[in-house]
């Protein structure tokens, strides 16, 4: 099947008659990539599904006003990241059971209890180390290490300089290395 371009999808979306078809094409093209971005932040499969739905609702509402000053995927990735972070903050605020725990402990507990996580012990230790990073370093590390995203694209998504991102990634790698050495 010939892969449809983002420009073609956006063009279809501008016509009321083909909006639904265009959005369906957009979902098919990007839902897996966005799911895994969200999953790396919220860790739980069920939570990732919920956040992905919210993300696509926001994308639907915002597509008519898309300004083309960013790549479509970068714009959607930013929405997915922001929705994920908002979800975690709301979950922490609402959760009485985790009132005395911080977000990292809550996420580690979710990861260990997640029936869909099929990683081995080394992957669990890596995820635990990543979860101990400050939020921005965690995002930068996940985008660079797992998604192999270019710093320029990350700069658009996180709205920060390439230099700051490189520094954040460097610090994240050093912290993870040191945390994993402690585990050994």
Automatic annotation (TrEMBL):
Annotated ranges, domain RNA polymerase sigma factor 70 region 4 type: 125-176
Organism, as annotated: Marinifilum breve
Family classification: Belongs to the sigma-70 factor family. ECF subfamily.
PANTHER family: RNA POLYMERASE ECF-TYPE SIGMA FACTO, RNA POLYMERASE SIGMA FACTOR
One MF term in the entry's GO annotations: sigma factor activity
Protein name: RNA polymerase subunit sigma-70
Residues covered by the RNA polymerase sigma-70 region domain: 26-94
One GO term of the biological process aspect: DNA-templated transcription initiation
Lineage: Bacteria, Pseudomonadati, Bacteroidota, Bacteroidia, Marinilabiliales
Keywords for this protein: Sigma factor, Transcription, Transcription regulation
InterPro entries linked to this entry: RNA_pol_sigma-70-like (IPR039425), RNA_pol_sigma-70_dom (IPR014284), RNA_pol_sigma70_r2 (IPR007627), RNA_pol_sigma70_r4_t2 (IPR013249), RNA_pol_sigma_r2 (IPR013325), RNA_pol_sigma_r3/r4-like (IPR013324), WH-like_DNA-bd_sf (IPR036388)
């Amino acid at each position: 099947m010939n892969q449809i371009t983002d420009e073609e999808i956006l063009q279809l979306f501008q016509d009321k008659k083909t909006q639904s078809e265009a959005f369906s094409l957009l979902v098919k093209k990007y839902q897996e990539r966005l799911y895994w971005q969200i999953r790396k932040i919220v860790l739980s499969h069920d939570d990732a599904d919920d956040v992905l739905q919210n993300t696509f609702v926001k994308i639907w509402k915002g597509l008519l006003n898309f300004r083309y000053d960013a790549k479509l995927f970068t714009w959607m990735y930013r929405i997915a990241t922001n929705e994920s972070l908002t979800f975690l903050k709301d979950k922490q605020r609402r959760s009485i059971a985790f009132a005395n725990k911080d977000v990292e402990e809550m996420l580690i507990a979710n990861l260990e209890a997640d029936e869909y996580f099929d990683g081995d012990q080394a992957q669990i230790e890596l995820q635990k180390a990543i979860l101990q990073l400050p939020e921005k370093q965690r995002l930068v590390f996940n985008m660079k290490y797992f998604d192999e995203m270019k710093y320029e694209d990350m700069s658009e998504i996180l709205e920060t300089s390439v230099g700051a991102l490189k520094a954040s990634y460097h610090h994240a790698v050093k912290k993870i290395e040191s945390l994993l050495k402690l585990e050994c």
